[in-house]
User: Which sequence fits this backbone?
């Protein structure tokens, strides 16, 4: 049996037994939905419907309904795409990277963080899809034999790398998540009595019986999937950054982009995990499993990644001057002092200054403060992408074609709509799926459970 | 002799591990252990061999690497070479750098999915399968050891039963099958 230092704070609070963990996780699944859940799903359902309406309008009328013009050809769509993909990264980081580092605190949060990843990547994939204008021809991005030659897709283009990166990332995350869910579905299957629930969870659990050999394989699969999901997650956002970095636009053509985008992604993703989990632990009564210690660990990750992002911003700024290229320098001066100075200011404040407040233990262990900070970081990271995309494009090579971007109600409607769709999916997950990896949690009960730690010393 | 199966149920993973060690020392073969989570250290006691799934994953990933390179060579070099921005697609080796991202992604795709599918098939946990754990609590908070007379033909039923009860299981059931 593993031992843990007595001074280390327990990860599972209260007097919990194995069956108590099952009961706690199953409570929202077998019970009737709480008032809060009903209120939240109603709101997010309405917002989602509004978003879907906007998407249909866009598909019917065309992307001229967005505020794009011939100078600013990419704006909210790609901003939203990068923002959502970035959010997805935290889930994989928690479930894969922290598994490789044997961090036990991930067990309470990995399931919902992975769910977040999957839903976020779905939202992300929507944007390039609808940006094509003719979404029914979206399959043209794959190298399928066709009657034009065959004319193949361009494998030298980062946009195509993205197709492969995002689809691999989505499907591997989905499989990783589901393989972890199977034993937990089996637990629910054996616990519920009759009715549609029994049928549903019997089907979902694929006949899992918990044999020793199966568990050995389970652990091997989790480890190997974590091992290959880790470089995958780094590659995905590196490739997303190459959508910009391989272009010759001043402000985009930067070699620092891949590491800077990856840390930014983890930074924003952890902020979103905190936003969701701080609400979820209260609404679903999971305070014993996700508590201050978990939040503190996540805030530490936020300081680290936030600082990397801060250093990257400043490096970018310095190099634009040091390069001696006047176009490069102008791109950055224009970012900070041009018509979009306010978005640059929001980005700098939210992403560079505010996470540094977490150096104070009092602040990083305050749940209310963390919640507010997580919203600030979400906002700041959205603006980071907006700054990179819009401010680099709006003043191009000919001053006669300089322009500005003005968003329309469709831009806003689709972005807010994806938030609604995302929340609806997440709430459905929270109601019908085990939100904690309950069987994994049981493995740390004896080493990190409060009652066992007390009895030991 | 009637074929019998014994199920000894314990309320703790460490108790089951001790019991398994005890009865294995007395020459009884344990057929199976059912538990709600992986019991670390049980495999060598009951003789479960290390899985070779990781090797499979490596082979699937290599297949992905080869397929991706072959595909891109065909699309970009052989079938329809294009001159993109003054950078012609002449040979695989000249273009390999811009093919690396897709090669990597496709290797991961094949490795991960190949291994996952193999895992599900080898376990027999595929859609539509019915679970056969002996007790519903074995997926919640109980740990069950299964011993059969088939695998221990040199011992009498009474002997097996007696040795199993000496490990103080919470419940010991004996069934014919």
Assistant:
């Amino acid at each position: 049996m593993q031992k843990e230092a007595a001074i280390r704070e327990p990860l599972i609070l209260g007097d919990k037994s194995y069956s108590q963990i099952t009961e706690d996780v199953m409570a929202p699944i077998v019970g009737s939905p709480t008032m809060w859940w009903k209120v939240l799903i109603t709101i997010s359902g309405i917002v989602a419907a509004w978003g879907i309406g906007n998407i249909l309008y866009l598909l019917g009328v065309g992307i001229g309904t967005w505020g794009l013009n011939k100078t600013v050809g990419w704006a909210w769509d790609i901003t939203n795409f990068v923002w959502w993909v970035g959010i997805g990264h935290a889930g994989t980081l928690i479930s894969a990277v922290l598994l490789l580092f044997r961090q036990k605190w991930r067990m309470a949060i990995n399931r919902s963080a992975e769910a977040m990843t999957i839903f976020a990547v779905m939202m992300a994939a929507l944007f390039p899809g609808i940006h094509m204008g003719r979404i029914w021809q979206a399959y043209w991005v794959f190298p399928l034999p066709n009657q034009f030659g065959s004319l193949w897709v361009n494998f030298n283009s980062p946009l195509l790398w993205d197709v492969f990166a995002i689809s691999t990332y989505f499907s591997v995350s989905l499989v990783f998540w589901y393989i972890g869910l199977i034993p937990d579905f089996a637990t629910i299957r054996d616990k519920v009595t009759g009715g549609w629930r029994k049928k549903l969870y019997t089907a979902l659990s694929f006949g899992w019986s918990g044999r020793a050999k199966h568990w050995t394989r389970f652990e091997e699969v989790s480890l190997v999937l974590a091992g290959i999901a880790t470089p995958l997650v780094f590659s995905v956002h590196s490739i997303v950054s190459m959508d910009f970095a391989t272009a010759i636009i001043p402000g985009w053509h930067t070699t620092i982009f891949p590491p800077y985008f990856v840390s930014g992604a983890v930074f924003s993703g952890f902020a979103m995990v905190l936003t969701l989990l701080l609400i979820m632990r209260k609404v679903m009564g999971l305070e014993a499993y996700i508590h201050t210690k978990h939040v503190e660990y996540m805030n530490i990750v936020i300081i680290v990644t936030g600082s990397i992002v801060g250093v990257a911003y400043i490096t970018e700024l310095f190099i634009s001057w040091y390069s001696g290229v006047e176009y490069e320098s102008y791109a950055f001066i224009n970012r900070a002092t041009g018509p979009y100075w306010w978005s640059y200011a929001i980005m700098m404040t939210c992403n560079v200054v505010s996470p540094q407040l977490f150096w104070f233990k009092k602040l990083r262990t305050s749940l209310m403060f963390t919640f507010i900070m997580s919203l600030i970081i979400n906002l700041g990271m959205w603006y980071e992408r907006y700054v990179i995309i819009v401010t680099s494009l709006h003043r191009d090579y000919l001053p006669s074609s300089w322009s500005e971007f003005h968003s329309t109600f469709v831009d806003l409607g689709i972005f807010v709509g994806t938030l609604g769709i995302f929340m609806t999916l997440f709430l459905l997950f929270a109601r019908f799926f085990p939100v904690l990896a309950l069987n994994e949690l049981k493995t740390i009960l004896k080493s990190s459970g409060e009652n066992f730690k007390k009895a030991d010393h | 002799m009637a074929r019998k199966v014994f199920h000894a149920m314990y309320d703790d993973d460490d108790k089951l591990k001790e019991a398994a060690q005890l009865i294995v020392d007395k020459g009884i073969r344990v057929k199976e252990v059912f538990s709600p989570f992986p019991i670390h250290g049980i495999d060598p006691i009951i003789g479960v061999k290390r899985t070779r799934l990781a090797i499979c994953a490596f082979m699937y990933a290599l297949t992905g690497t080869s397929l991706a390179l072959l595909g891109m060579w065909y699309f970009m070099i052989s079938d329809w070479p294009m001159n993109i921005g003054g950078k012609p697609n002449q040979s695989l080796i000249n273009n390999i750098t811009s093919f690396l991202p897709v090669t990597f992604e496709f290797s991961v795709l094949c490795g991960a999915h190949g291994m996952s599918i193999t895992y599900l098939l080898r376990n027999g946990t595929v859609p539509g399968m019915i679970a056969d754990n002996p007790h519903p609590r074995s997926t919640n908070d109980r740990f069950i050891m299964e011993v059969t007379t088939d695998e221990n033909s040199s011992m009498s039923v009474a002997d097996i039963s007696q040795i199993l009860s000496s490990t103080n299981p919470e419940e010991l059931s004996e069934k014919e099958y």
In short: The longest strand of chain B covers residues 4-10.
